[in-house]
Design goal:
Chain lengths: 281, 499
Amino acid sequence: MSTRVPVLKTYKLFIGGQFPRSESGRSYVLKDAKGRPLANVCRGSRKDFREAVVKARAALKDWSGRSGYNRAQILYRLAELVEGRRDQFVAELARQGSSLADARRQVDVTIDCLIYYAGWGDKYVQLFSTVNPVASPHFVFSVPEPTGVVALIAPEDSGLLGLVSAICPIITGGNSVIALASEKTPLSAITFSEVCAAGDVAGGVVNILTGFRSELLSHIAGHMDVNAIVYYGDDMEERKTIQSQASLNVKRVIFPDRATENPYLIMDTQEIKTTWHPVGY
Amino acid sequence: MSTATATAPKLDWSYAPAPESVDPGIKKRYDLFIDGKFVPPVGGKYRTIINPANEQPLCEVPETTAADVDRAVKAARRAYHKIWSKMSGQERGKYVYRISRLLQERAREFAVAESLNNGKPIRESRDIDIPLSAAHFFYYAGWADKLDFAFPGRRARPVGVCGQAIPWNFPMLMAAWKIAPAIATGNTVVLKPAGTTPVTALKLAELIAMADLPPGVVNIISSGRDTGAALVKHPDVDKIAFTGSTEVGKWIMNTLAGTKKRYTLELGGKAANIIFEDAAIDQAVEGIINAIFFNQGHVCCAGSRLLVQEGVADMLVNKLKHRMQSLILGDPLDKNTDIGAINSKEQLDKINNYLQIGQQEGAEMWQSSCELPDRGYFCRPTLFTNVSQSHRIAQEEIFGPVLAIQTFRTVQEAIEKANNTAYGLSGGVWTDKGAKIFRVTRNLKAGVIWANTFNKFDPSSPFGGYKESGMGREGGWHGLLPYVDLEPVTNHKVPGTKP
């Protein structure tokens, strides 16, 4: 009697709502704790990143122009989809080295995190806006607006929760994002991109690359059409590279301690716009 | 009443001189203000500051060196640890209020000093720069004991010692923008004014001494060779706040790479001032004048690009020329003066170079026919027509009384042209249609948008740019953020990042 042969999954990049392989044709072999191969993972290239920036820029106008309510519902929808694939995410994390208990906890908190930020979608603007009581006869108000295209160097030590909790505040605020997934645990990132594709996140709003930080970091930080870079990590050399490259176009550089449920993280990738108008007749 | 004379007298519209006469109280020689005392520079050297309107010496200020910067930073560090970070917000606030009140009491004196040193018309220094400076201190003084209410779920902590470097275009106002929020939130400060304009900052040091602020909380130095670099690189400075050129801002970012120093930057701009054909045109003309000729155009948020809808372009440009002819250029201390002196020979050369470039690239230059004084650095109000998007005068910050005019047909075209720049500090929109205002203001990538007005400022209103115009805001609630660290106070759930 023959046993059924399982269908293996191919892990690819997520750019502009599609799943291409790296244009470079390169990949690296991801292994489990016992050294057995788990998957061939795309080794994303500079060109893949550039392509993703083009898609992210193109997606920005629509995404940033949507109502907070609409963006909130889309984040909520992502939570629903992750919930539906809970077993898959748990098993995948376990394959990448998590204990089952940790994997379950990570997936649960990821779902809760999506719900948490979904709730901010139509609220953070109120929390961080002001009407300014100026001394002259003008009506003046200041509101947050998305800074634009954001590059994310996702936490290395948390392939699913780390990534999602870092993406959430960026896209909740109307930005588009290009995330470089954890090098050691990249599989959940690509599976999460399937959730984004199946949810109502328009192509290009979330882009996910896998590959080597050391190879891509300088290029990502130096790209002239990226408005901000969010970096999770404490390697001072990497931070130096990022800040130095970011100076080329005055990129906003954000080094959050860790991704938490926290509306101030939304503000990290927002600009404040102040509008004046005379009061008169 | 006598009967009408047979021959009408010749009309003379020139104004009689109306010089402001208050004593500016400028000393012959200034010293550095470090640790609450006025001390000579380590190197013992001084240099002469001149009045740009007549090229005459105004006073001497220290030639500051890295050793002086180090002394100032050490004083700021001591004051931070020993006094200022331990003082209650309420007491801190009272000191900041004192500065505001003392400045109001001596406002006219400061205004005259500012105009003498900077070249700006007394009308502006008297009605805008100095009152706004006092208002800024007053506004942030009140925040000092209210920070617990400012950030939900967070406790605001000062960041420490702040190194602050400011430009020459609004010497006193920029000092206020920098110092007030920093010290109100519990930081201590080393402030470096620009090379050509240290006078009001050093006069402010006298006020701060008079206010009896604890020694070292505010230290004010002057410029010297590489003083700014020494301040930026000093290892015991926690934060750099800089207002100035984008070029220097990028250098600061690059220099601070790999350190834990924070920074906020308020950099250059090339603002589009958009005039729709349904705007109140006469009001718009006044707005354009204010947008580009305020402070001789030495304004980072100046409306230096004029975008006019085609249907009204010819009429508007004619009205604009007519209005520009009536601008009074001359002695900054004369109360009639609209356009004062360019701050330095260096800046005048830069502006004149752009006038050459503009013509060489094919734009058409027109200048007011006003006479220039015999001495001092002056530039006639200037506009360019036939400007295309790629012209350097449409892309680069000139920082002078020079307006580049382009036209557009549709709302979309106006927005695209306005955003077609690496800068994003400010913008203007003129139309009588409310819905159009919001369509345009929402789509402009800039930090401050003036609709049916321009160049308005208030301490309660945040100011700062998008893109290469910098990061961080000054003014208002948002202006607190660059000077605080936010620590969680609520028992927030923190999802673990370990797998």
